[in-house]
Write a structure and sequence with these properties.
Shape: elongated
Strand content: 15-25%
CATH superfamily of the largest domain: Medium-chain alcohol dehydrogenases, catalytic domain
Subcellular location: Mitochondrion
Subunit structure: Homodimer.
Number of helices: 12
Catalytic activity: a 2,3-saturated acyl-[ACP] + NADP(+) = a (2E)-enoyl-[ACP] + NADPH + H(+)
Enzyme class: oxidoreductase
CATH topology of the largest domain: Quinone Oxidoreductase, Chain A, domain 1
CATH class of the largest domain: Alpha Beta
Distance between the termini: 27 Å
Helix content: 25-40%
CATH architecture of the largest domain: Alpha-Beta Complex
Radius of gyration: 22 Å
Order of helices and strands: HHEHEEHEEEEEHHEHEHEEHEHEHEHE
Protein name: Enoyl-[acyl-carrier-protein] reductase, mitochondrial
């Protein structure tokens, strides 16, 4: 059997958890005419780890028979997240068995139901909650309990991206320090999607935000509610806290960059402040001086959203999604994305990898008629 056949045999398990046995078209045709089948699907897959632009390819997957609690979902949109790229590279702590379909987040519309499904209807919008592996495909079949119905009166690019970055922003603001109205936070990576969400969620709760960026425009962040925006070079002064004016010293710092940028976050923190690291875009270590630990009594913490993916947290996780989508619907939460047709996936991946400069979050649009 050639490698292509091996890929097809293994990938059917992405559509149905625990079922790594591919039924070919002939076998499916021999089944009872009453069986409910998903449509054939196009998927972006990878058979081994490596550079995503080299190891991914688009293939056709055959129909899948829907069992009792299965739901067939026609994907509407799915983003390319850094964690998706890291999984393909083989450097993310949680990785699916290979071969695998890429993607971990997205929104789709219910296409068909297994005979035992009771809480979803054809036409519902659903998202995988918690997120799972395998959203870069036109149709997904998974059991009913894997899907969460969401409101339809938000753009698809928001529904597709609500479960990772906005949830991360919410948890960063709520899980580490008791923030009260009038308090201040400081963050780097402020132009990222998480950073934009942090600014707005803080503003809604009357929390001041001090934002560190590299060299991009500050106007966009101020429109979102940022109190102060500084470039890293502006903070390269001895009396950095003199730049804060009447703002209080931040009690919480949020770091997704590392290196020099994380050191600037630490410099701005008040006595006994806390810095939480949730990323390392600069690929440089976080360094803290002995005096900052002893005399300022600073605390260093880490955050990984994966801890919120446990089954016992599913109800709370889904409640967060509903809350955040209501904010989107009401115009209180917004961020930049680029919707890209599925057939242009390679170009979107290049942009997500930074090969073409800086771009907003790349979101694959499956609704284009040319994708199927």
């Amino acid at each position: 059997m050639g490698s292509f056949g091996v890929v097809l045999r293994s990938l059917c398990a992405v559509a149905r958890p625990g079922a790594f046995s591919f039924r070919g078209n002939r076998a499916l045709a021999a089944r009872s005419f009453s069986a409910v089948l998903s449509p054939p699907s196009k998927a972006v897959v990878y058979e081994h780890h490596g550079p995503p632009d080299q190891v991914t390819r688009m293939i056709d997957l055959p129909p899948v028979e829907l069992k009792g609690n299965d739901v067939c979902v026609k994907m509407l949109a799915a983003p390319i997240n850094p964690s998706d790229i890291n999984r393909i590279e083989g450097v993310y702590p949680v990785r699916p068995p290979l071969p695998a379909v890429g993607g971990s987040e997205g929104v789709g519309q219910v296409q068909a139901l297994g005979p035992s499904v009771g809480n979803l209807s054809v036409g519902d919008w659903v998202i995988p909650a918690p997120p799972y592996i395998g959203t870069w495909q036109t149709y997904v079949v998974k059991e009913e309990n894997a899907w969460h119905r969401v409101i339809k009166d938000v753009p698809i690019e928001y529904a597709a991206t609500i479960a990772i970055n906005p949830v991360t922003a919410l948890r960063l603001l709520e899980d580490f320090v008791q923030l009260n109205p009038g308090d201040a936070i400081v963050q780097n990576g402020a132009t990222s999607m998480v950073g934009q969400c942090i600014i707005q969620l803080a503003h809604l709760n009357k929390i001041h935000s001090i934002n560190i960026i590299r060299d991009r425009s500050q106007k966009k962040l101020r429109r979102l509610g940022a109190d102060e925006v500084f470039t890293e070079s502006q903070l390269d002064v001895k009396n950095v806290k003199g730049l804060l004016g009447d703002l209080p010293e931040p009690v919480l710092g949020l770091n997704c960059v590392g290196g020099t940028s994380s050191s600037l976050v630490l410099k701005l923190l008040r006595q006994a402040g806390t810095m939480v690291t949730y990323g390392g875009m600069a690929k440089k270590p976080v360094t803290v001086s002995t005096s900052q630990l002893i005399f300022k009594d600073l605390s260093l913490r880490g955050f990984w959203l994966q801890k919120w993916m446990a089954p016992e947290k599913a109800e709370d996780f889904r409640a967060m999604l509903d809350h955040l989508l209501r904010l989107v619907r009401d115009g209180q939460l917004q961020y930049e994305t680029d919707l890209v047709p599925f057939h242009d996936f390679s170009a979107a991946l290049d942009r997500a990898l930074g090969k073409l400069g800086s771009h907003p979050k790349q979101v694959i649009d499956f609704t284009s008629t040319s994708t199927v």
